[in-house]
Design a protein that fits this description.
About 45% of the residues lie in helices and about 20% in strands. With about 625 residues, it is of the alpha+beta class. It is flat and about 120 Å long.
């Protein structure tokens, strides 16, 4: 009886294993086609979307496939496969199945059978002429909002398998990535267009201004502009200020005719742009950008921030008074105030006029253009980096999120059958092989889970946390691993609670402390220091060890997904041989911290240890 029972169990296990192998083979073939499609992507995003649409139709054996995008009130078929020659790719959305998919409240796949008997036989003009029987559509999202529909249609009855549903989900996610890339590229083109406009405007400035623009160092530019104002304008003193959001609300970026000691004092005085706006309203406007404040109105000025000239009081009202002041606006492209020239000590002894102020206003425009161009360039670089990051991260996310469920199911079947086989296996060599299969399968599940965690983009919960209690909890969880390690706590002054996601903070601490445990694994005297303190704006956490450290060439990569220095990549033998890494721990840590509007940095030296520093905003 026992032998028959075991034989049936073995036969059942073999059958399940065959089904699993067949499913794995089909998944691998599909994954290979999807990967090949990604590899063959071109800079033409619409072409990439069309390739993805075609791939979806081919792999699902559909009659035709479309990616319909809602654009300016119309449905536009950005992706087409196997459509009739007379197919119209742009049409009104009302009554179309894809329009209902886009307007659906959820993100699930819509399946409609018996199309000829449905309401769409009357409302969607493609159903009856093309004899469509089955429709399957998946919303494509951008910033968590549906913007398009990836759909396949069949001239036969079609019931999708879970693998089919997962495939259309993967391809819809990939199209969503292309949508994000298109948005970033469009924004990049617009910024380049603006940058070209600003460059053209700058070329129209005077030869002196052009010479200054050829200088690369900002401080040198502003120093030379200040000297030029003092040398060529009618004024012997100048101070150039640029506004910012934080106290003292301005940076004095250039000055001439004033000693540095006086400037250092003036830098301590708080003067926001709103104060200057009030002064401009009351002052006398001259030219396009200049405002004259005569000595009779000096009471409207901040006396701590004002430098008065010296000399005799003039007899004529048309002359410059030593206590007169003049301000020239610096505007951005929208006419908003971004900075100001402050000048005094008229060389001619005359009140300012439009003619005497024209050089100042040219120089004001120059500095404004330099600032705008620099900001635009920084935004352009940021968009380029975001675009590259999107291409890399979203591809990982789409693939990981798409295959994880199916892959885990396959691994579970392999694990189950391996465990059953181990129960009845008597051969030591075979048993050893089966144990190796089980161990590697467990590692595969762990790697898949890390990939899925990285791919998901959930908003953090907002709960009041005592960060030191979280550290206590994590240290207790890792108590066994810390048994031979000296753990030093340096909790400085009292720190406030923070609003944060408990799970994310817990896993951040676990990852960082486990990394330190691994780093000291080959030392006799092992030490980990955990510091907590606060500054004016942040709660700070530092986790420092005296372990193997990280080479400088690797520091820039440690937060990249799939990057690890452990296991097979530990060529220097810095870790115990039983220590392995998935490469997603620090990537997830960085993601969690940035989702809390915080920052993480690292300092490390080979053989001298590593210190991770986290800053989280105080509430």
């Amino acid at each position: 009886m026992t032998e028959k029972f075991l034989q049936k169990k073995i036969e059942k296990a073999e059958l399940e294993q065959k089904v699993a192998v067949d499913a794995l083979k089909k998944s691998e073939e599909r994954l290979a086609r999807v990967s090949e499609c990604f590899i063959n992507f071109t800079p033409n995003i619409l072409k990439n979307i069309n390739q993805l649409t075609s791939l979806c139709g081919e792999l699902l054996g559909a009659t035709c496939a479309l990616y319909n995008r809602l654009d300016q009130g119309l449905l536009c078929s950005w992706g087409q496969w196997n459509t009739p020659p007379d197919y119209n790719p742009i049409y009104k959305p009302e009554g179309r199945i894809c329009y209902d998919v886009i307007n659906s409240t959820g993100n699930s796949t819509l399946l409609i059978n018996d199309l000829q008997q449905s309401k769409y036989a009357e409302t969607d003009p493609n159903v009856v002429p093309f004899k469509l029987k089955t429709y399957m559509g998946k919303p494509v999202q951008f910033n968590n909002k549906p913007i398009g529909s990836l759909c396949v249609a069949f001239q036969k009855d079609f019931t999708p398998s879970p693998a089919d549903l997962k495939l259309i989900e993967i391809i819809a996610s990939a199209i969503g990535v292309e949508e994000k890339k298109k948005y970033a590229e469009d924004a990049l083109k617009e910024n380049k267009k603006k940058l070209a406009t600003y460059s053209k405007q700058t070329e129209q400035l005077s030869l002196a201004a052009a010479a200054m623009l050829s200088m690369k160092d900002e401080q040198t530019i502003f120093k030379n502009i200040s000297k030029a104002i003092v040398k060529y304008s009618d004024f012997g003193r100048v101070m150039i200020s640029l506004f910012k959001d934080k106290p003292p609300f301005r940076d004095i970026i250039g000055f001439g005719g004033v000693d540095k000691k006086t400037i250092d004092k003036l830098r301590q005085v708080e003067l926001p742009d709103s104060w200057y706006d009030e002064v401009f309203k009351q002052g006398e406007k001259i030219g396009r950008l200049s405002y004259y404040i005569p000595h009779t109105m000096k009471n409207i000025l901040n006396q701590k921030a004002t430098i008065y000239g010296k000399g005799a009081v003039p007899k004529s009202k048309n002359c410059w008074h030593p206590e007169d002041n003049l301000f020239v606006r610096m505007n951005n492209q929208n006419g908003d105030l971004i900075g100001v020239f402050s000048v005094d000590e008229s060389k001619s002894g005359l009140k300012p006029s439009a003619d005497t102020l024209r050089p100042l206003e040219i120089f004001s425009s120059l500095i404004s253009q330099i600032i705008i161009m620099k900001k635009t360039y920084q935004e352009q670089r940021k968009l380029e980096l975001q675009l590259n990051h999107t291409k890399k991260m979203e591809a990982i996310g789409a693939l990981a999120g798409g295959i994880a469920h199916d892959f885990n199911n396959i691994l579970s079947i392999i694990m189950g059958n391996t465990e059953i086989s181990l129960l009845s296996c008597q051969d030591k060599e075979i048993k050893k092989t089966l144990e190796l299969i089980l161990e590697q399968t467990l590692r595969g599940k762990d790697l898949t889970q890390n990939m899925v965690t990285f791919a998901k983009d959930h908003e953090p919960k907002q709960e009041l946390l005592k960060i030191r209690n979280q550290i206590d909890y994590v240290l207790n969880l890792l108590k066994k691993d810390l048994d031979t390690i000296e753990v030093i706590r340096e909790d400085r002054e009292k720190i406030s609670d923070i609003l944060a996601d408990p799970w994310m903070i817990e896993h951040t601490l676990i990852n960082l402390i486990q990394n330190s445990i691994h780093a000291v694994s080959k030392l006799k005297l092992k030490r980990i220091i955990i510091r907590t303190y606060s500054n004016d704006e942040n709660i700070c956490i530092e986790i420092e060890d005296n372990g193997c450290g990280i080479e400088k060439k690797h520091l820039k990569n440690i937060f990249e997904p799939s990057f690890t220095l452990k296991g097979s990549r530990d060529t220097a033998g810095q870790f115990q041989t039983n220590i392995h890494g998935t490469g997603y721990g620090l990537a997830n840590v960085k993601k969690y911290i940035e989702q809390h509007n915080g920052s993480i940095s690292v300092v490390s030296e080979p053989g001298a240890g590593t210190k991770f520093s986290i800053k989280l905003p105080q509430q």
